[in-house]
Amino acid sequence: MSIGDDRRNEHYVDPAPFNPWEREELTPEQEKYFLASQWQLMWWRLKRHRLAYLSLIILVIMYASVLIVEFIAPYAQETRNSEFIHHPPQAIHLFHDGEFVGPFTYGTDFSVDMETLKPTYAPNMDRVDQLRFFCSGDGYEFWGMIEMDFHFVCPAEDGTMFVFGTDRLGRDMLSRIFYGARVSLTIGLVGISVSFFLGILIGGAAGYYGGWVDATAQRTIEVIRSLPEIPLWMALSAALPVTWSPILIYFGITIILGLIDWTGLARAVRSKLLALREEDYALAARLMGAKPKRIVARHLLPNFASHLIASVTLSIPNMILGETALSFLGLGLRAPVTSWGVLLNEAQNINAVAVYPWLMLPVVPVVIVVLAFNFLGDGLRDAADPYKN
């Protein structure tokens, strides 16, 4: 019998001496994969989820813009152009009479319709107002500390650049949307911090200890969830003193949203811990003298991290929508604070929306952010799942 026949035999034993230190040579790609940490594996899985990865890029850009909103906004937050009240959106052009002249807007001629008394703005095709980049424009205080007037883009010296039109006071809508992003986007992060802390703390205690701790937590959650959410928001927001500064109102709204939104996460954490606390590794940790805090934080919570990540990414848009709804109803943030909800508050009059539809444009970034967070949460949940390839 030949050696080849022996190798085909299922009982063949290689006579070569066994070397425990010898291992199969791996390609660089295989070695990189086998030695990767759990976070690296999650990142690679997330990058394969194209929609979630694109959503992550969009959210990173939007949150990065919050840091330099004064620089990227073409006008200051409260700059008023009294001669351009309710100016319609202006288009950005590159070519004039078949020639490339760079980004520019056409000038406008103002007139009043004597039948409806409605102001009208007609583009003046003979007036080309070239945009300026990295230029001096409206003055502002960068983060309320440093006085500057440097902008990424500015209108021409005597021209205008109302890409999203203006409001009833002649303020540029695009600039105000940029400024509103600072409040509307950060309120979700601050609110979810409060909600996440309460959900993990109360849900973890209820799930791990059980007994009267679990019963008290569950009855509290049931009472909170039995209350209508929108009226409860409205009642608590209306209770904030009108004499408070805008910063105090901002943090007050944030805490209110966090105090109401933690119940769902607490129940999810509680149900998971009730099942995981009976696992062998949890029992082994208790027998080795580990304290409950360490067992929950080091052994139980990481086992459903995918659910926690998905909950966080889905709760942030709920916070943003909550603030937008309260401000839209006039019970949340108020002027001079600028948020997307405050901007939409001016669009409550259906007649104004019918005549000036661009007042509804602040709803566009709200929709984009909510969809991006939902897609990102779906991708992160799949990426954090250890049973997915």
What are the defining features of this structure?
alpha+beta, MetI-like fold, 2 domains, three-stranded antiparallel sheet, 15 helices, 5 strands, 13% strand
User: Which CATH C-level class of the largest domain is it?
Assistant: Mainly Alpha
Number of strands: 5
Strand neighbour order, sheet with most strands: 1-2-3
Average pLDDT over all residues: 83
What is the element string, with H for helices and E for strands? HHHHHEEEEEHHHHHHHHHH
The total count of helices amounts to 15
The proportion of residues forming helix, as a percent range, comes to 55-70%
- What does the largest sheet look like? 3 strands, antiparallel
CATH fold node name of the largest domain: MetI-like fold
Strand content: 5-15%
Structural class: alpha+beta
| CATH homologous superfamily caption of the largest domain | MetI-like
Rg, Cα atoms, Å: 29 Å
Second-tier CATH architecture of the largest domain = Orthogonal Bundle
Walkthrough of the structure:
The chain has 2 domains: 89 residues, no CATH class; 207 residues, MetI-like (MetI-like fold, Orthogonal Bundle), CATH 1.10.3720.10. Helix 4 crosses helix 15, helix 6 packs parallel to helix 9 and helix 12 packs antiparallel against helix 15. By secondary structure, the chain is α+β, with helices and mostly antiparallel strands. Strand 1 and strand 2 form a beta hairpin. The chain is flat. The strands form 2 sheets. A 3-stranded antiparallel β-sheet has the order 1-2-3, with no helix packed on it. It has a two-stranded antiparallel ribbon with strand order 4-5. The protein is built from 15 helices and 5 strands.
